[in-house]
């Protein structure tokens, strides 16, 4: 039974608390948060204790910590937790600064503790099934990947300003999905971005709509499309053309009811946002973490994966500004 | 080159005129109609002559006639045309009277000329593909058949009154589809009907919504659902459960555009009515007739098929009235 | 907080234990089963006590019991539990004997305690959404209902023999769905059944494939199709034609991946069986029970609903044997 | 009645001959081809005469010519035909050389005759319905366009060598579709291409898989994906995200049959290639040409549209080679 400390008590921490509790191989022992009240409330709900982060990291009875705090604390907490001997599952992104993430990577390489980054979409039943079919050779060799990833509505501009920008905050999931499916990093990253949804987002120095093209050493190509606004719901699709066919992972819908009237044939919208769409993915992610930590086997997503995606976000940010393709090697220095 | 006389110049005759003209193996030579003006107009449009029915049947240069006149003339014209040595394609139904149709069957059995009944749905690309998959054993042995067949809007009550009733006029297509797919006639026919769409239809002695259950000697079951009104368009679907799977032939849609908005995900309606849905079927039907007549091979749908469907319509009409199942054998005497 | 005793510790009891525990308004206090080991194991898993049924019913601290024992004990336990002052949620069917269920109905009418029957499908998000759309008038007035309900594989013949037969054991869910959607009981019930899936099922006096047609006083019609075997998975669909459109609740699929190859365009199968398909429905069902009991409001499904569905199963059983329609009034006597 | 001369007697000329003949407002008078036998055969099939191109252009009784010859003859024939006073419908592309096409554009501007370029996809019922919905404001303001356009199999390398390359030969249709839907030309064109399908195509100096990103002055973005090989058939889809929703035009399928077995749920493939998919589009294109010429109104697609798409192909060709974005203005000089 894996004993777990949860760092953070916000909305996504609540999602993880449920997954930890429902998993038969793990128990939620303690919760910390800079907002003590939030920590107390979440802990009470799941029969855990509210403690300080310090107390959690120093408790030898705690085997693992789940880091669900704000992004600017991730690198520090990963370093402290692994130095304290804990296995770590940390929400994405590792950091907004590639350099800081790379420094963290070195610390972890030294202490040798397992760190998993929360790219939950790899565990979505649909994307996972697509990956399985690809690995089984069901469409031959991959050639052209397309990822569509639209949020239902943009966050407040106050959030945009501290988010690190669309490429680091939102598309980072899609960069990891590309790495997951393509199995190797791209050579070049070309981005175009615009603030057509809301000029205020442009005013804050960010884009709200973007297309990134990735090229690979062996000739493969990937395209990622992001928009901060798809009024019909969370649009999360992947499409991969291979030498022997096409794989598509389509949206999950709110229900399966279809209505035919004089106005046409109408079905339900996609599930609204990430909590609705990815709840099964969060559970499966946690189950994979527990299984790997308990068995001492390799984690399915690593800190290296987190750094790799961050490097692509950095390249895309630069490309969108310069209007020129960026070689990923130039970023990784 | 098959030289063809067309008896009838109404709407469905126009459909056939197109199919005859577009087929590289047949030519439309002459058209007749009780409305001379209609015959003249249709003939002119397709480069044919307007003639009397008499003249068409007596012309030794005409190889085949297509009968697209009113139902009450079908049996007579089939007998006259086959006695005159023509190959015949006659619109369904053979007759509203089973006895008259059976008498016609005997005449044709004597003169030995090929007569095909226009059950065009057998040639619909979707139903034909379903039948092919079934015959290839793709779902094992058939067990339970469902046919959904809804018209977009009811015809005028004046038409209802002379139509022979829903079972002979509308469901007869579905009886033939059941025979086509199941490959044998049922043992019992149980019908329920109601005039829930329009009480005036009930007032005219007919039903507008009906369900018929068919049982087969080997334990198979079929269900046919008819409604005179599906406001979203012509709903024509078939579904067949077998020992190793399910086959479904779904509706054809007006186009493939899908719109996702806050109101849901909306696609196009089914093609509106039989002319839109079954135009390819009419062409394929005619091509099959031409091919068989030219090759001297068996016709894919026969007068016997027409009589078999009519007997089922007769049984359903009786069952809907009595509320009791009817043995098909009792109808066929 | 509703304190709950669970009677039964089999597979479906486990499903309910999860729903009781996950619901923030209820706690699982005790579990009983004729197999003491099973009760102990299930109780331990959810932090409850294993007790005798007697002890549970006599414990004044227990507010409600969930009856998930074998069918032949349902009526007795409903009577004992309500006499002991408990609110009851009992798995379907109430009883295999209509007379016994009606006697139970009288007892409960006398003691006045709330009893809900576990027709979980009413709480399926898809069927519930269809019902909501219907109630909002989105397709006008209902005219023709079709329910397709196929199991993936037949149960062992040993089970068939004690099941009460397909109509009482399997189609009873669909009878309740018809009552739920149509809002009133039918006038006549006509059934045909066959043992085409497995002759051994026929040898046991039951059918494995059946079609039931229901007629309503106002002219509406419903058709229910059941098969014990759909090799592609659990096929659970509802379709309702109304004066202004059609509503369809389609199957839920294992995932949304679609593969296009030279062999065609292939998607996932329906979720395998009732546990996969109806898990959200079991949770929603329990939530509705807790909410109604806590608020003292009417339960959304009642013992009367259980008896009504059972009467239809009785009528269908008779109809399938006699080959004749059965008036529901003659059953309810 | 528009009297038409057809220049060219190859496969696509045959398609046009059918459309010309079936249209009630036009007649095919004469056919020419460098292969006299082919011209004779096609003419005979449609009741027309085989003549020399010279004779067709000099015949004052001929109102319009349809140019379906090899690409290298298009500009010359457009000039000669318009100088001879004919209305012209010319197959795409105008020319492989942008300069030559622009020279032709000037000649036509001088003689003032109507020239339509055969971008038939604008007349596809699906894309046309998408455009109509967009123009009606059904998804608000367009923001992000995606075009997927995959051929089922690559042409022979001998063809590739004279084709002008993927961007001029294949993607030119998609450039026109972008112009059609976006209503204005892009500012920049960025292309990546690879010969991952067949290295021999790369050996011939061309690519077989490509992604092009277009940016617009008002912040909109478009992405076009091309592959010379989608083994499952002709994949022709358009997707447009707007401020109030998403429009998608999906593939047309060979039929609507769906088969559910233990292997999954399988439907038909997309229609195989352009003749199957776009036959209705060719007819609608011709009908629009006839209507506009007869009415003397503006043609729905013009020679300017042909030059605009060609300029984008030129820009994409340069961008794919240099790896840098190309400003369209730099191409149009």
TrEMBL record, chains A, B, C, D:
InterPro entries reported for this sequence: Gfo/Idh/MocA-like_OxRdtase_N, GFO_IDH_MocA-like_dom, Myo_inos_IolG, NAD(P)-bd_dom_sf
Residues of the GFO/IDH/MocA-like oxidoreductase domain: 127-247
EC numbers: 1.1.1.18
Domain of life: Bacteria
Key words, A-Z: Oxidoreductase, Plasmid
Gfo/Idh/MocA-like oxidoreductase N-terminal domain mapped to chain residues: 2-119
Enzyme's top EC category: oxidoreductase
Molecular function terms from GO: inositol 2-dehydrogenase (NAD+) activity; nucleotide binding
Family stated for the protein in its record: Belongs to the Gfo/Idh/MocA family.
UniProt name for this protein: Inositol 2-dehydrogenase
Designated gene of the protein: iolG
